[in-house]
Amino acid sequence: MKISFANKFDNKDNLVIIYSDKNRLLEKNKLSNAQKNLIEKVEKLNKSKKSFTEFFIVPEEKNIKKILISKTKSKFEISHTEALAGKVLSLLERNNIEKAAVICSVDSNRDVSFNFIKALTHGFLMKDYRFEKYKTITKKDFKVSSLSFIYQASQLETKKLETQIQMVKGIYLTRDLVSEPANELYPEKFVQLCNVLKKVGIKTEVLDEKKIKSLGMNALMGVAQGSVKPPRVLVMKWNGKKDKNFSNPLGFIGKGVTFDTGGISIKPSGGMEDMKWDMGGAAVVAGLMYTLAIRKSKANAIGIVGLVENMPDGNAQRPGDIVKSMSGQTIEVLNTDAEGRLVLADVITYVRRKYKPSLMIDLATLTGAIIVALGDRYAGLFSNSDSLSDKIYKSSINTQELVWRLPMDNKFDKLLDCSVADMKNITGTRGAGSITAAQFIKRFVGDVDWAHLDIAGVTWSKRGTDFSRPGGTGFGVRLLDNFVKENYE
Ligand SMILES: [Zn+2]
Predict the structure, then answer these.
(1) Distance 247 CA to ligand 1 centre (A)
(2) Contacts of 184 (CB under 8 A, 6+ apart)
(3) Catalytic choice (24, 169, 229, 267)
(4) Residue 309 · residue 257 · CB < 8 Å
(5) Is 267 one of the catalytic residues?
(6) What residue ranges define each of the domains in the chain, with the CATH number in brackets?
(7) How far away, in angstroms, is 210 Cα from ligand 1 center?
(8) Are 428 and 412 in contact (CB under 8 A)?
(9) Residues with a beta carbon under 5 angstroms from ion ligand 1
(10) pLDDT tens per residue, range 243-256
């Protein structure tokens, strides 16, 4: 979809009118009498409502085709505006409108008005995404091709809007990665698709199987060994401070299981196709790094993802195997389907030793239990730091990518103790599966401030969300981009 500015509209255009105050709208915009009358009529019809969105065809004026009128609350909130854009876009699609002029009259302050346009733009583009590349002869969905804001933009504002348009690429990358089927997306291919990051100034480094083995990442290797696809670890560096030493970057870590059969502890076949997005955490880290670079974030950040395919072939890891992780701690693998934590354990150890991050946030589609607890709206948040946790929570409110913190403590930790190794990868007890998974990861983070986001419920939406269609949501990119922007720039 093309989004642009235009200085004026003519009466051949379809119109989208978004406003908060009727008088200001009518005063500041050159609307025709028919349009003005229509707005008066809509106001009367909806006089009990503070906000509404309605769609009309205006037959009395033969040139004006279609008009969408939306009254919104006067206080500007980014996430609310983005969600409104999604709603407007869906209505335009349903009415087969290919092009429209957009008139916004929401505030007398210029900065607020422009930020409103920016948020609408982001909302339009987030909702616009669809994954249709494998549809070859079947019909693709109707698409709105262009929207132009009627706004006298300065050069600087035009540039800012362009950056805003570019930034959605981060979310698109995440969604592309989670949407690709596992025959097309395996560890090496994930790395290849992330080559786009180099074009915006991200430095990448790839650890191949040989390197992974020589580093002693046996927990990660154990998961990968049942697949013919070799594992990879991808490191992505963004040096926003432009310092030579790249000291104490923010660390973002992602679970990238490109397909999870469960391994020898194989999953039931119903719904197993969903496991193509078991690399959702890694996809968010890649999309986040892309976003930070596109908007030239002033922070230093390192993204690292562990990429493996969990398959049950003749060389696969067995339940009862004991592996020595890179940290030196040994793990009895009682269930080969609890593999994400094994991958994260080694990747976290590596990034902690090599880059000394100031904090670490890992993202993983880790447990089915988090879906039982929080459904498809909230990600589970676990942390060893109240202040880090508070910051993430604030960004969650800002972006409406919702998180909810769950408890951790020593008694949960003790459930991981094992009679034949330093720990086991599942507790073997019922309940609190998401918490004990987080406790497992915590054994590898040392004293670094750390948070873990269990995104198993929010990475994919069967129904679609305010910001996305059914499919990959890209949840986490906006959340953590906001977290970086609000706290570290
Ligand atoms: Zn699994």
Answers:
(1) 34
(2) none
(3) 267
(4) yes
(5) yes
(6) 2-151 (3.40.220.10), 168-487 (3.40.630.10)
(7) 24
(8) no
(9) 260, 337, 339
(10) 999 999 999 999 99
